[in-house]
Amino acid sequence: MTPALDALCALARHTSGARAVHVLDASATVLSCAGPGDGLDRGTAIRAMAAGRVERSGRVLYHPVPGGLLAATGRRAPRPEALTPFVPLAELLLAAAAEPARLARDLHDSVVQTLYGISLGAGTAAELLYGNPAHAEASLAWIKETAAAGLTDLRGIILRLRPETLVGAGLATALKGVFETLHAASGLTDSSPDGRPAGWGLQLDADPPVSPQVEEALYRIALEALGNAARHAAASQVTLRLAGDDSHVVLEVIDDGVGFAPDGPHPGRLGLRSMRERAALLGGTLDIHSAPGAGTVVRAALPTG
Question: Is residue 108 classed exposed, middle or buried when 0-12, 13-18 and 19+ CB atoms within 10 A define those classes?
Answer without folding.
Answer: exposed
